[in-house]
Design goal:
By secondary structure, this protein is an alpha+beta fold. It is built from 5 helices and 30 strands. The chain has a 5-stranded antiparallel β-sheet. Strands 2-3-4-5-10 form a 5-stranded mixed β-sheet, with no helix packed on it. It has a 4-stranded antiparallel β-sheet with strand order 6-7-8-11, with no helix packed on it. It is globular.
């Protein structure tokens, strides 16, 4: 995540969260004993003499040797995958056979008896264990495409930032625009329909890590690596809408995209747009990077979260500090407010998230929840009585505010989870991952879809954040990543839920 201050040119490598996530997944080359004999180096050199190359012969031989090892590694993985699949099929057939014998009748009539035999239980457990092993990250890369038929249309790409985009949000009042916060020290406002940049905020001296809009007024709240949070006003005029592009793909598109160069971004930066450089209010009480900020219900107070291990509550009108919320053992990563109640949730690198209750003016209670084994990257409220938390431990957990002792659902993924969001109407969870994937789940933990990621669309580097914008049956999901762009997706919610 972002760092304090620094130039935008160095943020691409240095502006990371101190958790030091493994953003790049390197291929581990394992030496194997192969039965086939390889030609000696001299023979390979003779084979290459006729080829036009300026590389030294020894270097070319080393490259050939390495490529041979890679080929054998993938061959072994492919064979292992086939063997695992055969074992799963065999276990499945045996389990089906045992179920038929226990039922004592036509297998097409009814399910197994409630109390199955001990042997069937053991076989079922073995099947589950084998299945989990077969869907590990590397082996599952050979898996055939099977998934939802619901369509996700790429609506628009928003390109113009000079560095990675950490956060985005959609205004809650008219005019409806998209806001993005970037490591290039700026926040930009965009026309959702046309993808045109409408306004730039350049008042921060460090990475802009978060952007949230006032519930009723044209005001934005941004948090920055310069140890401050700014409240600033904006006025924009939406351009005439353009016809949408004819681009669509199934949500479970498995086709991977080839990495482009870090600076290779389609389109050009925003043209000369109005720029706001002076904040209406500056909140300065933190001693470290301000990583996130949000408005409390009503918009008269805001809460900020910082790497100084504290969250602060401020009065908007006076910019005065009301409460310093301390207790986390390590840096905070995110904060979120309840849409209808005076509740705040903060997440931290200390593997916990805390619920702060300001509903009673005389009592400010706090509850600590330890449900993860690694950094809690975000925790957000839903419209109902739920909290959804995501973590670097590759899990997302759904909690009931009335009983927070244990999660009511757990989603396990194959990559660290960044800033999640939950749709207001359908309560669909959007998970942005380090591995560039964006997956959709319902509140019970059932996977609904995965957004397209092909050579034509999708993010080329880690996805940092997601945000929803819902209008009737049409639902827009916005994603942003360290590839310097934000993407708007049109999701067919009825078709998505029908697949469920």
């Amino acid at each position: 995540m972002p760092v304090e201050g620094g130039s935008s040119g160095s943020n691409a490598s240095a502006a990371r969260h101190p958790k030091q996530k493994r953003k790049a997944h390197s291929l581990s080359i394992r030496r194997t004993n192969s039965t086939e004999e390889r030609p000696p180096a001299t023979h390979r050199g003779e084979m290459l003499e006729g080829q036009d190359s300026k590389l030294p012969l020894s270097l070319r031989n080393n490259l050939l040797d390495l490529f041979g090892q890679i080929e054998r590694e993938f061959e072994n993985l492919y064979i292992e995958n086939l063997e695992l699949r055969r074992e799963i099929d065999s276990l499945n057939e045996r389990l089906t056979g045992d179920g038929q014998n226990l039922e004592g009748g036509d297998p097409s009539k009814g399910a197994l008896k409630t109390k199955a035999s001990h042997s069937t239980s053991q076989l079922s457990q073995k099947l589950k264990t084998t299945y989990k092993a077969s869907t590990s990250k590397i082996v599952s890369s050979f898996k055939a495409t099977t998934g939802s038929r619901a369509l996700c249309h790429l609506q628009k790409e928003y390109v113009g930032h000079r560095d990675g985009i950490w956060d985005l949000g959609v205004t809650k009042s008219q005019p409806v625009v998209l806001g993005t916060a970037s490591a290039d020290h700026s926040a930009l406002l965009w026309s959702i329909e046309t993808g045109k940049c409408l306004l730039k905020y350049g008042g921060h001296a460090g990475s802009v890590n978060s952007i949230k809009f006032h519930p009723t007024e044209q005001m934005a709240l941004t948090a920055s690596g310069d140890q401050t949070a700014h409240i600033w006003r904006y006025m924009v005029q939406l351009p005439a809408p353009q016809p949408p592009p004819d681009v669509s793909a199934p949500c479970d598109d498995e086709q991977d995209s080839s990495d482009r160069e870090e600076g290779d971004v389609d389109g050009e930066g925003p043209c000369e747009v109005p720029t706001v450089r002076v904040a209406t209010a500056t909140l300065k009480s933190h001693q470290g990077v301000v990583i996130a900020a949000d408005w409390l219900v009503g918009g008269r107070q805001v809460v900020t979260a910082s790497w100084d291990r504290a969250a602060n509550l401020y009065e908007v009108e006076t910019s005065e500090l009301v409460h310093a919320l301390t207790g986390h053992d390590q840096e905070l990563t995110h904060c979120c407010t309840h849409p209808t109640q005076r509740l705040v949730v903060t997440s931290s690198r200390d593997t916990t998230f805390r619920l702060w209750d300001f509903r009673d003016p005389s009592i400010h209670s706090v509850n600590v929840f330890q449900g993860h084994t690694d950094t809690v990257t975000s925790a957000v409220f839903t419209v109902g009585d739920n909290v959804v938390s995501g973590s670097d431990d590759r899990t997302v957990k759904v909690w009931d505010l009335k009983n927070m002792r244990s999660p009511i659902a757990t989603i396990r993924t194959d990559s660290a989870v960044n800033r999640i969001s939950v749709s207001t109407n359908q309560r669909i969870i959007a998970l942005p991952h380090d591995n560039r994937q964006v997956r959709l789940f319902d509140m019970s933990g059932v996977r609904l879809a995965r957004l397209p990621r092909s050579n034509r669309m999708g993010h080329r580097r880690m996805v940092c954040c997601t945000a929803w914008n819902e209008e009737n049956q049409t639902c827009n999901l916005f994603t942003c990543g360290f590839d310097r762009q934000a993407i708007g997706w049109n999701i067919n919610i009825p078709a998505l839920l029908q697949e469920k």
